[in-house]
Structure formats: structure tokens, C-alpha cells
Design goal:
With 317 residues, the protein is of the alpha/beta class. Helix content is 33%, strand content 17%. The protein is built from 10 helices and 11 strands. A 6-stranded mixed beta sheet has the order 8-7-6-9-5-10. Strand 1 (4-8), helix 1 (14-18) and strand 2 form a beta-alpha-beta unit. It is globular, with a radius of gyration of 20 Å. The model has no long low-confidence stretch (mean pLDDT 95).
Length: 317
Amino acid sequence: MKLHLGVRHWDHVIPLALGDVPGPAVTRLEATPDLWGSPEYDGGETSFSRYVRARAAGDDRVVALPIFLMRGFRHRCIIVRRDATAETAADLKGGRIGLTGWPDSGNTWTRAILAEAGVGIHDAEWQVGPLTAAHPVVDRIGGVAVGNNIRHTADGARLVDLLLDKELDAVMTPFMPPGFHAEDSLYRTLFRDTRAEEREYYGRHGYIPGIHLLALRKEVLEERPEIAQQLIDLFEQAKQLSFQRRNKLMDITPWHNEEIGVTTRTFGPDWMPYGVSADRRMVAAFQDHLVAQELLAQPVPAEDLFPYQIDPLEKIA
């Protein structure tokens, strides 16, 4: 398949990147490519939020397939100081919250957790900036219209410094700062038992939030519409092979087998399903959150968001 895709270093795409599952050329990247401005790629991984908002604005240069390469619960992504009194999302009402990007897909899901507890975007003071000194000072509001209670950190101040200096009450971040897991860490998660919170969330909603997905440039699909089904089947094969190897060869923690068991009993054999059918509820919920957070005027019809309404031909048994 003469196709060049750029994606991040996900375990479930390694079989494609290595050629164990023959398919497109896959380059693994440290960050998601800009598919709207990177002509070197025919497609690749992109932000769910950016894609939805682009389609809503009438920009159809990029077309997504229902292949969510990055998924994850977000309760674990809210951190506070170790001595903080806050224990629940509701405790952050009226508080000062830092985050690493305002329109980001992951932070949209995290703010939705707070919204369920009565903490909407107008119920806190928000500062957007780099997590640590290792992260660049860039525009993290992304040019979207925001209220007066949302601003960049002053002079590019780092969120962890503001948190430790008690200028912030909590920080939303997908990646933990250095030392977070140490026994004497200065930080902790807001929720003492994130797994319990996430299990309850899954029980209520029935999905694990999707954050990044696979997309192609419009002209690629117009020229070869058949590759939409081919790609979802290839990525499904790569994911299945990754799962099989993980169960035999990739003990990434001493309790790997136990973790696989817990995951399978909770979510079934495939916790990251591909396809329109499997993700319909999650996609609708995400758009509702974008509307509630004033990042989207109204949901994009499913047939416009995913013009190729495809599902994998082969599912995990």
C-alpha cells in the first residue's frame, strides 16, 4: 500500500510500523503531525477535538476514519499537592485550575468530569501553560474564543511551580511531572482511588474516551476510497497482534498478568474498539462536551464527521 502515515509510538501500531502486518509506511513520531499543513504525510494521527472543530467550520481537507489510536480515562489526569484538602471534582468549584491546553481533546474530557460534578467552565479560574521547564512556551489556547476566567500563565510560568506555590489548586495533565510516582512525591491525584472512579465512569457511560484518531488527506481517499476499509482492517490486525504479543512477551510490570486479567474482566477482550458502530455513543458524548464547553456551536452530523461509515471486518474473538 503506497501510503505514508505519521503516528506516535503506540504499541498497537508497531506491527504495522515494522511490517509484521504488511500495509502502509508508518513513521512513528514524538508528536502528532499537522495533517492540515504537513504535505509529507498522506495521513496520520490527529486530535479528535481539532478534527471535529475543523469539520464544523466547513474545512474538509482532512477526513478521519473511526480508528481511535489514543484512548484513556482522565480521572488520573487531575493532580493536586500532596497536602491538598480537595478530594473530589466538586471540591474544585471556585478554584484555580491549570491545564496544558484549552481546546485539547484530553482536557475536554477532563473538564467534562468536573462538569458532571457541577464545575463548569465558568465555575473556576483557568490558567493554560507548560507543565514543566521541559515544555515549550507556546499558544495553548489555540486561537479559540474564551472568557475572562481563562488565560495563559504569566510569562510562561510552569504549572507545577504554580501548583507547589499554592497559586493553583489543581493541574490537568496527561503526563505526570518528574518524581510524581516517588514515595515522597509532592503531588498526588485528586481522586485517591482513580481506578474505582474510572470503573464507575465506565459503568455509567460504557466507553473509554477517545482522544486521537487516524485521518487522511481528502484527496487520498477521493482517489482510492477502498483504502478506508483496508486501513481499518489493517489497524485491527495490528492491534490484535499487539494484544497477543503483550500477553506473551511484554511484561511491562511485575503484575502484568494480573492487570491484563482485571482489564479483560472489566472491558472485555478489546478495550479500544475501532469502527463507527462501537464508538457511536462516545463520539456523540464528546461533541456534547465540546458544545457545553463553548468550543463547538452544535454537533457535526455523524455522516459528515465520518463519511466512510466503516467497521472492522474481523473482530477480536
